[in-house]
Write a structure and sequence with these properties.
349 residues; 2 domains; Rossmann fold; seven-stranded mixed β-sheet
Length: 349
């Protein structure tokens, strides 16, 4: 008889997930079984819970948890590159592996995906369970001395922020300015990635919560501002020009309007958050030749770069751990804005 385990699964659209008993998977050819150390909770999980099923085109049920790290438990036939016991982090999006983008490590932009890109916790079984089946070792990055229970959010919260910053590095450097709107788990990582990749850039962090503004300063922001005073202050500090890079980690109507107000000619406005707001783009609404972009996640090669930054201490995660039985409570607290950094479920303690 197959071994059984508890898993937090989506079983019906627009309904809370449920803890269910399922079989521990057995790795087939090329696959690898991971003993889950940590599975991060993300606002996109809340989005999945409240989205009509037809918009997702994913079959139910599936286990939540797309920010995953742990230890190699078992290798399927032909799987290589790692040994049992290795600490690893799991690259989240799982593409076809055959198209040009996937071969370049950009499964996040798989050309053969139908509907939203799938991965563990995203239409396929994720890490909110003691064990996670990964389809290929090409989705694994070695963690070295990093603890998987704390490192799990690197695969999304850090990778998404890192990719968003990295694409704009040609605009940054001495005498440059960057703005991060929203200093939750993702925004905290965005500030740190900016400081690590472009230390000479002056960073403005914007959030309505005083504690989050204070956190931004400890993580490398040069100034932390409330939304009410941000536009006037940033315009004055940049001689009326605005910032070369604006990262909106919220994505609501009001934050996108704020982003447009503090951007500059030839700059980048990058939409990272999933709040579903809209930014009208025409000749008058954004600065001239200011690009508006909505990047998605990052590449597996960039995940390795993120892990290296964490290993060197240049980026650090603030995490709060929860047992698997407490995952629903953690999601409730996340929805209410009561998680200081990133909540992480640790199914194996």
């Amino acid at each position: 008889m197959a071994a059984m385990m508890q898993a937090l699964q989506m079983v019906a659209w627009q309904q809370p997930p449920e803890l269910r008993t399922i079989a521990v998977p057995e790795p087939g050819p090329g696959e690898v079984l991971i003993k889950v150390g940590g599975a991060g909770l993300c606002h996109s999980d809340l989005h999945i819970m409240h989205t009509p099923g037809e918009a997702m085109s994913w079959a139910l049920p599936f286990t939540l948890g797309h920010e995953n790290a742990g230890w190699v438990e078992k290798l399927g036939e032909g799987a290589s590159g790692f040994a049992v016991g290795d600490a690893v982090i799991v690259y989240g999006p799982w593409g076809c592996g055959q198209c040009a983008n996937c071969k370049a490590g950009m499964d996040n932009y798989c050309q053969n995906s139908v509907g939203p890109t799938q991965g563990g916790g995203l239409g396929r079984n994720g890490g909110m369970a003691p064990y996670l089946l990964v389809p290929s070792t090409r989705h694994l990055v070695a963690l070295g001395s990093l603890d998987p229970r704390d490192a799990a959010p690197l695969t999304d919260a850090a990778l998404t922020s890192y990719h968003a910053v990295k694409r704009s590095l040609p605009l940054l450097g001495p005498d440059s300015f960057a703005v991060v709107i929203g200093i939750g788990g993702l925004g905290q990582m965005a500030v740190q990635c900016l400081k690590a990749l472009s230390p000479q850039t002056r960073i403005f962090a914007i959030d309505s919560a005083p504690d989050k503004r204070a956190a931004a300063l400890t993580m490398g922001a040069d100034e932390a501002l409330s939304p009410e005073t941000a536009v006037e202050h940033i315009k004055a500090a940049t001689n009326g020009q605005g910032a070369q890079l604006v990262l909106d980690v919220v994505g609501a109507d009001e934050t996108l309007a704020l982003a447009a107000a503090v951007g500059r000619t030839l700059g980048h406005i990058t939409i990272v958050g999933l709040a579903g707001g809209a930014l009208p783009v025409n000749f008058y609404t954004v600065p001239h030749e200011c690009s508006v972009c909505s990047p998605y996640w990052g590449s597996s090669g960039e995940l390795a770069e993120v892990v290296a930054l964490a290993q060197s201490g240049k980026i650090k995660l603030t995490t709060e751990r929860f047992a698997l039985a407490g995952a629903l409570t953690a999601y409730d607290r996340l929805a209410q804005g009561q998680i200081a950094g990133r909540a992480v479920v640790t199914p194996n303690g």
